C-alpha cells in the first residue's frame, strides 16, 4: 500500500509540474535574458541620464545680496566687496578675481568672511581705484559641498563701456563634473545595494545566502572606489579645474581640511574597518551572537548614512538637526527597500523553478519590510520636500520642484509595481499554508473509510513575481538617478529667496533695482539673459542700463534691444526707455518714472533678422 501511495504521490507531483509547465509556456528556464541584462546595464546607463540633464555649476548656496550692489554707480571707491548668501559658504584660494575698467586683474587681499558671518565672502580692494566700471568674478563652496560662482559689476564715478574681452564666470570643467557626478551616483547605488542586501538577509532570512555574497562584495568594493574617487575629485570640482590636478598634494590636503573631505575620509575609514573585522572573524572562524552582529551592522549603517546627510541638503538651511535625522532615516529606508529589492530579485533568479524550494515567508517578510520603508520614506520625504521647496509655487516654478515631481512620478510607478509583487506574494503564501494544514494528522477511521488527502492547489509560478520585482528594480534605479539630480539642484526655497532683491548697504551708494531676465527665442544659440539696472529706482529721473549675456554666460551683442515700462494698476504705459547701444551695453541716461508702484519691465531682444522674443519681470519703484 505504501508503494502504491508513493507511486500515486509521485504521479500527483508530476501532474502539478505539468500544469505549471503548461502555464509557463516554455518555462522560466527559457525566459529571455534581455530583462536581466537591462537591470545589469541600467546602473551604467543612468549616469548618462544624469550628465544629460544636470546643469553645470549647480549649487545650493544662492547669492542673496552684494555690497556694492550689482550694476551700482558709486560716488567713492569701496574698500571691500562683500557677498551675502542664503547659507554658510567655504572659501577657495582663488575665490575672487577683480578686473579694472581696462580688463586688467587687480591685486586684492585674501578672501575671508565678514565678522561673525559664515554666510558671507569678502575681499579687500586696493586703496585707490580709477574711475570706471569694475568686474568681480567669484566662486565659493556652499555648506552642502557644491560650488557656486558668478560675476557682478560696479562703477566708480561714472560708467564706462565694457571691454571686448570681459571675463566671464569661471566655466566648469566638463570632464571633472562628469566624473564627479558618476562617482556620486555609484556611491549612492552601491550603498543601497550593500545595506539593502544586509537588511534582506537579516530580516527575510532566505534559506541560503551564498548567491548574495558576490553582489555584496562587489557593492562594497564599488562603494570604497567611488568614495575614493569623490575625495580625489573634490578639489578639482570646487576649483573648476582639470581632473589631472586631483593627485596634487595641495589638492589632497585642502580637501582634508573641509567638512565634505573629512566626512569622505570617515566613510572610507568605516568601510575599511568593517572589512578588516569581517576578514578577521572569517579567518579565525569566529561566530558572534546574532544580536551582537545586528547591533554592529546597525551602527555601521547609521554611521555611513550620516556621512551623506551631514554633507548634503540637510547640512544647510533651516532646522539642521531635524533635517539630518530625517535625511539619515530617508537614506536608510531607501537602502532597505531598493537594495533589498535587488537582493530579492537576485534570490528569485537563483531559486529553483518551483515555490517549494523558496519559502513563501521570504517574499512575505520582504513585503512587510518594504511597507515599513515606504511609510518612513513618505514621512521623511514630505518633510524634506517642505523644507526644500518653501512654497507651492516652487513646485512648478523651480528646477528643484520639477525634478521633485519627476521623482514622485517614478516613486508612484515603483509603488504600483510593488503592489503587483505583494499580490503575487500573497498567492505564493496560500499554497504553503494549505500544505501545512494538509500535514496535520487526522484520526484513523479504518482503511475502508479513509479518503486520500485532497490534492494541493496548483502553485503559482514564480515567473510573474520575478517580472514585477524586475519592474520594481528598474523604477528603483530611476528613483536613485533622480535623487542624485536633486542633490545637485538649487532648492526651491533658496531659489525663491535669491529672487528677492536686497538694497545695497555700502556708504554713499545710490540704491538701484537690478533685474536679470532669461530669454529664449527658440533658435539655436538664441537664449541667454538680459540684466537691467534701474538707478536709483525711485520716482523721477532714472538711468537705465541693460547688458545681454549669451548662452555661455559671457557678454553678447544683439542688433536690437527695446525696454518698456508699464504700471498695470494705473493702466499707464508702455513707456519706451529709448535705449542706445553704447558698445557693449545699452543705456538710457535720463528716463522719467512718474509714479510709484510695481511696474512691469518688458524687454524685446532681437538676436537676428528673424528671431526675437519679449520677456518681462516686475520692478518696485519707490517715492
UniProtKB/TrEMBL annotation:
One Pfam match: CopC
CopC domain segment(s): 60-156
Keywords, comma-separated and alphabetical: Cell membrane, Copper, Membrane, Metal-binding, Periplasm, Signal, Transmembrane, Transmembrane helix
Gene3D superfamilies the UniProt entry points to: 2.60.40.1220
Transmembrane segments: 185-204, 216-233, 264-281, 293-310, 322-346, 366-384, 404-424
Subcellular location: Cell membrane; Periplasm
Pro residues: bias regions: 450-460
Gene Ontology MF annotations: copper ion binding
Extent of Basic and acidic residues compositional bias: 1-25
Residues covered by the Copper resistance protein D domain: 364-486
Record's keyword annotation contains Signal: yes
Main location per the UniProt record: membrane
Membrane topology, as annotated: Multi-pass membrane protein
A cellular-component GO term for this protein: periplasmic space
Single biological process term from Gene Ontology: response to copper ion
Region (Disordered): 1-29, 435-460
InterPro entries hit by this protein: CopC/D, CopC_dom, Cu-R_CopD_dom, Cu-Rt/internalin_Ig-like, Ig_E-set
Protein family per UniProt: Belongs to the CopC family.
Protein name from the UniProt record: Protein YobA
Organism: Streptomyces argyrophylli
Amino acid at each position: 500500500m505504501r508503494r502504491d501511495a508513493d507511486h500515486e504521490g509521485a504521479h500527483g507531483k508530476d501532474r502539478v509540474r505539468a500544469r505549471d509547465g503548461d502555464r509557463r509556456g516554455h518555462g522560466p528556464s527559457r525566459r529571455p535574458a534581455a530583462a536581466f541584462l537591462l537591470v545589469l546595464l541600467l546602473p551604467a546607463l543612468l549616469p548618462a541620464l544624469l550628465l544629460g540633464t544636470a546643469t553645470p555649476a549647480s549649487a545650493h548656496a544662492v547669492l542673496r545680496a552684494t555690497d556694492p550692489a550689482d550694476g551700482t554707480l558709486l560716488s567713492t571707491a569701496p574698500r571691500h566687496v562683500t557677498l551675502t548668501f542664503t547659507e554658510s559658504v567655504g572659501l577657495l584660494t582663488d575665490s575672487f578675481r577683480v578686473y579694472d575698467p581696462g580688463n586688467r586683474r587687480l591685486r586684492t587681499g585674501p578672501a575671508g568672511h565678514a565678522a561673525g558671518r559664515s554666510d558671507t565672502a569678502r575681499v579687500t580692494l586696493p586703496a585707490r581705484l580709477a574711475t570706471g566700471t569694475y568686474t568681480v568674478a567669484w566662486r565659493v563652496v556652499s555648506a552642502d559641498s557644491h560650488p557656486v560662482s558668478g560675476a557682478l559689476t560696479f562703477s566708480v564715478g561714472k560708467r564706462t563701456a565694457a571691454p571686448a574681452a570681459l571675463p566671464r564666470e569661471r566655466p566648469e570643467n566638463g570632464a571633472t563634473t562628469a566624473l564627479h557626478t558618476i562617482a556620486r551616483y555609484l556611491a549612492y547605488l552601491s550603498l543601497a545595494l550593500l545595506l539593502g542586501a544586509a537588511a534582506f538577509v537579516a530580516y527575510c532570512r532566505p534559506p541560503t545566502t551564498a548567491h548574495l555574497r558576490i553582489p555584496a562584495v562587489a557593492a562594497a568594493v564599488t562603494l570604497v572606489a567611488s568614495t575614493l574617487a569623490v575625495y580625489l575629485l573634490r578639489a578639482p570640482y570646487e576649483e573648476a579645474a582639470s581632473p589631472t590636478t586631483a593627485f596634487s598634494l595641495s589638492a589632497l590636503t585642502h580637501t582634508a581640511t573641509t567638512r565634505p573631505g573629512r566626512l569622505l575620509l570617515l566613510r572610507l575609514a568605516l568601510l575599511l574597518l568593517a572589512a578588516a573585522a569581517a576578514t578577521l572573524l572569517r579567518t579565525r572562524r569566529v561566530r558572534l551572537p546574532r544580536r551582537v552582529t545586528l547591533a554592529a551592522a546597525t551602527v555601521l549603517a547609521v554611521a555611513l548614512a550620516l556621512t551623506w546627510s551631514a554633507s548634503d541638503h540637510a547640512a544647510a538651511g533651516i532646522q539642521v538637526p531635524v533635517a539630518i535625522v530625517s535625511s539619515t532615516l530617508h537614506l536608510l529606508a531607501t537602502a532597505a527597500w531598493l537594495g533589498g529589492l535587488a537582493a530579492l530579485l537576485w534570490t528569485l533568479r537563483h531559486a529553483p523553478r518551483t515555490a517549494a524550494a523558496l519559502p513563501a515567508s521570504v517574499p512575505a517578510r520582504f513585503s512587510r519590510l518594504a511597507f515599513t520603508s515606504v511609510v518612513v520614506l513618505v514621512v521623511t520625504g514630505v518633510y524634506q520636500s517642505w523644507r526644500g521647496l518653501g512654497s507651492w509655487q516652487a513646485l512648478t516654478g523651480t528646477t528643484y520642484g520639477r525634478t521633485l515631481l519627476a521623482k514622485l512620478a517614478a516613486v508612484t510607478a515603483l509603488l504600483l509595481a510593488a503592489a503587483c509583487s505583494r499580490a503575487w506574494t500573497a498567492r505564493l503564501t496560500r499554497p504553503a499554508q494549505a500544505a501545512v494544514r494538509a500535514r496535520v494528522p487526522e484520526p484513523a477511521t479504518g482503511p475502508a473509510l479513509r479518503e486520500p488527502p485532497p490534492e494541493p492547489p496548483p502553485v503559482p509560478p514564480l515567473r510573474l513575481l520575478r517580472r514585477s520585482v524586475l519592474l520594481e528594480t528598474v523604477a528603483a534605479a530611476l528613483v536613485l538617478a533622480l535623487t542624485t539630480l536633486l542633490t545637485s539642484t538649487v532648492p526651491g526655497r533658496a531659489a525663491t529667496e535669491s529672487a528677492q532683491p536686497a538694497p545695497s548697504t555700502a556708504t554713499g551708494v545710490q540704491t538701484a533695482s537690478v533685474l536679470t531676465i532669461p530669454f529664449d527665442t527658440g533658435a539655436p544659440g538664441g537664449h541667454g539673459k538680459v540684466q537691467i539696472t534701474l538707478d536709483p529706482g525711485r520716482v523721477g529721473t532714472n538711468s537705465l542700463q541693460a547688458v545681454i549675456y549669451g548662452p555661455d554666460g559671457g557678454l553678447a551683442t544683439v542688433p536690437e534691444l527695446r525696454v518698456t515700462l508699464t504700471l498695470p494698476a494705473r493702466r499707464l504705459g508702455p513707456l519706451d526707455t529709448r535705449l542706445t547701444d553704447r558698445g557693449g551695453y545699452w543705456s538710457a541716461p535720463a528716463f522719467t518714472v512718474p509714479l510709484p508702484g510695481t511696474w512691469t519691465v518688458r524687454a524685446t531682444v532681437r538676436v537676428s533678422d528673424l528671431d526675437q522674443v519679449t520677456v518681462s519681470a516686475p520692478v518696485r519703484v519707490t517715492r
